[in-house]
Amino acid sequence: MFIAGPEVIKAATGEVISEEALGGAAAHAAIAGNIHFVAQDEAEAVQLVKALLSYLPQNNLESPPELPFNEQLVDDEALDDFIPEDHRQAYDVKDVIARWSIRAASSRCSGSSRPTW
To answer: Considering only CA atoms, which of 24, 40, 42 is closest in space to residue 32?
Structure first.
């Protein structure tokens, strides 16, 4: 998806670019960060959607599915230092999530190497 096609880009800048490079899934995932998952084909897309839907309840009256938790809980004092005392100071919530859960760190919502969460 793009506003000006490859012909307009060539006329304006002289650059030759394909439709895929200009507005394809890879560009939206890696450069713009507008999409999080890129499938190679329809079968892979269906599997991605099934995996995402597995995290949601079937309807508004159900609770979300629960995943088994077999790990030992430990008090992680390193978490005390992640969030700064000054609430105006920025911090990276990805570090907090990754520290809480190895599963969260390994199931990032991103279709590219660009971090989107």
So the answer is: 24
CA nearest to 94, candidates 107, 112, 85, 75: 107
Rounded to 5°, the CA angle 11-16-21 comes to 120
pLDDT (tens digit per residue) in 44-81: 989 999 988 988 999 999 998 887 878 777 787 877 88
Residue with tokens 């030992």: 72
And the tokens for 23? 């507005």
Burial of 29 (C-beta count, 10 Å sphere; 0-12/13-18/19+)? buried
Residue 62, pLDDT score: 93
Average pLDDT, the chain: 77
